[in-house]
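Supplementary material to the annual report.
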Amino acid sequence: MAGITGKDAVLTEYAHRLETLDAPKGRSLTQDAIRRLVRNKAAVLSVFVVGFIIIFAFAGPYFLPWTYDKIDWSGIRKPPNFEAGHYAGTDQNGRDMLARIMQGTQMSLIVAGVATLVSVIIGVIYGAVAGYFGGRVDAVMMRFVDIMYALPYILFVIILVVIFGRNPVLLFVGIGFLEWLTMARIVRGQTMSIKQREFVEAAKAGGAKPWTIIFRHIVPNLTGPVVIYATLTVPEIILTESFLSYLGLGVQEPQTSLGTLISFGAPVAETLPWMLIGPAVVLVSLLLCLTYIGDGLRDALDPKDR
Amino acid sequence: MTEVLKVEDMSVTFELHDSEVQAMREMNFSLAEGETLAVVGESGSGKSQAFLAIMGLLAKNGRAGGRVMMGDVDLLALDSRQLDRYRGKDIAMIFQDPMTSLNPTLKVKTQLSEVLVKHRGFNQQDAVTTSIEMLERVGIPEPVKRANAYPHELSGGMRQRVMIAMALLCQPKILIADEPTTALDVTVQAQMLDLFKSLTEDFGTSLVLITHDLGVVAGVADRMMVMYGGRVVEKGVTDDLFYDPRHPYTLGLLHSTPHIAKRAVRLDPIQGLPPSLENLPKGCAFHPRCAFAFDRCLVERPPLRDVGDGRQKACFYEGPLAYGEVA
Amino acid sequence: MFGYVTRRVLSAIPVALIAVTACFFILRLAPGGPFDGERALPPATLANLRAHYNLDLPLIQQYFIYVSRLLQGDFGPSMVYNDFTVAQMLWIGLPFTLTLGLSAFVIGTLVGLVAGALSAVNQNKWPDYLLVMIVVIGLVVPNFLMAAILQLVFGVYLNWVPAGGWQSGSIPHLVLPITVLVLPHAGRTARLMRGSMIEVLSTNYVRTAKSKGLGQRLILARHAIKPALLPVVSYLGPGLSYLLTGSLVVEQIFALPGIGRYFISAALNRDYGLVLGTTILYMFVILAVNLLVDILYAWLDPKVRYS
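Predicted assembly:
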């Protein structure tokens, strides 16, 4: 370096010393997040439990002697009876409870999956558009979200169900349609901060159209928060669906879901407790574990939130 | 000269999940009445942590060792409640960022008057009146209006003045200022330093000024303490250190400060980066960046020793310290 | 502050209007009508019925008739419960539902705030763990399941409180329903409060307050509470929304005389008048609460008042 005498000798010494020093241990953001997540025992345990429940629901029926709608005339309202193959008892129609629980869980999971997908897609697009365009567009779009947020959405779901009949597909879409609000808000917030970053400026300067920018540059950077809130949305959707099914507005006979099972089990729980216990345990475990996983992901990716 | 604060062998350690880090260690100094001591060092040198620890404001995973005597009381041995008797009253602190250091939901007058009510038993009205007088004293125009305002209605410079007023209301013996001018414009900086000087003279407060800016030190401090890698490496009267530095790091700091009257061809920073506290170099912490290091420096850590005239240094090198001209 | 309040009130009016309009058209656009019941009616009767309820007029006209009547407090007749107007039916059930809902809301909010604050201050010590566990249970167990369990345990097995039904002015009959409503709301509120309080306690201005030697109590009461409440207060609007939703089910399970019972059967029977009326009423309550919440927010956060 020019200008100061005596330092050239120092520099060669310094360069030499740099080689002998240990480099500081660097850690990438994802590695950090995974470390934190793995350390969260509740989350890890929950992942296993959820995995088990999924396998239970989808693979279980193949191992059972009874299907969920087959009636066993000799075993109506019976408590668990291992010899007859009714591991969780039977209901008032003589159908095997364990099979019905499995089928119900399947249904709840499918609805949850589809509805989450719907809400993620709608939420991400809506939020990204609002956040990217900003100004009036954003103001109007967000006002709409605010209004929707404040209204009792369940009333709208019920109205939707009333309108379109009890079509299960519509159930998924309808529920998803109402859960996108939070996702939209979060995506909007994130989009607003991402769009300030240099690579977006560069893309704009390069003449990219807004939609290209949104889908190529902004959306891929949203994965973190989107995954977190999608995971947190799933239990809410399961709750909504079971709530509707409980009221008789959700999944219809002979199909069943956890909510429906509970609605049948609750009134007779005194005399036929197995009709309530099974589905209740599965539902609560599922929700609990999903919540822990969602929280764990959120802690892992954004430690300040704790 | 009475001693208002005596720090003995102080250290600050943080517990991480799988290890411990020492942010600062082996700190010894005493502060005389009415004296201004500057604590100088780069970010990460541990300078702020020491004083946060004295004020009982360390993060939850931090521990302080050693003794800090204020009169007969060891401040480090007190718990939060006991410390509250002294904090804000005998010893006060102002922080680096005036933007976030005041409560946005409370009016300025509330945040000021509460110290008087709590520590000096004033009634609300007198407390507010005295606070407004103090606001005037620190140079805030239209003090009544400002007192009734919320912090976000004031500029950065004014907020920092409010912080100073708040700290001095109970006329503490010791005021600790952690980088008080860093977040402010240069012109405001100069005014702030003048304010410090006049207030400490008027109130007889001892001031600890933590900074990385030597310009600030030169104007205000009686003595200075240079820190590197969590330890004190040089200590003494400010003028002595400026004109005759005895530690290569001090020399480097002085040298890297651009001189306003001279036109530099290039800026001349100290080569290299400050060490990670988890991974301090063996021997002297500064040796990888030191122009005067020799073989002893790589293996043995130089202790802080007296070199006469109230000066101390932690360095083995005994020769002349200069490269080119010192500004 | 006054200007802010006025502005909020004025902006709530178009929102209410939009909500009513949206509901109206959505319901009407649905296939099927109130007379598609089990009995097939002779065409003449059907035509008369439709004329009587104005169903043969163009939709837009029906809309304006509806709104003008609405402004006079007339929700129109119920198409299924022939002897009653919607307003009458709402009047029967509304006071009860509102009392139940609002008391559960207030209790739940207070409990949640206190629990959340205590949890935050004692972070990672036993009160925190205990509260977090209770919160999680409250959040995760759906209200209908919770109701069933509580009914069984406290109503039947232990027989401490009645498991259902209603006698005028009887508090014990309200214990279980209110508990079921309070738990999830208190849980969510506590969670928010805890997180918010923890964040506030780690801010620079709380650090300044500590450095002034103010003591924990003063810091909590004066410096921490207002900022910590902000995110929680924002949640209260949707929170009430969830609560009223939950009250639908609770009223059914515990056989309570509120609007909830009518709503679902009205929806299934396509009783436009009743469904619309109930929905509008719920919405008004929520809009009103939202307005109050906005005002509360402005009081807590001075910066908002200029928006």
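The radius of gyration of chain C is 24 Å.
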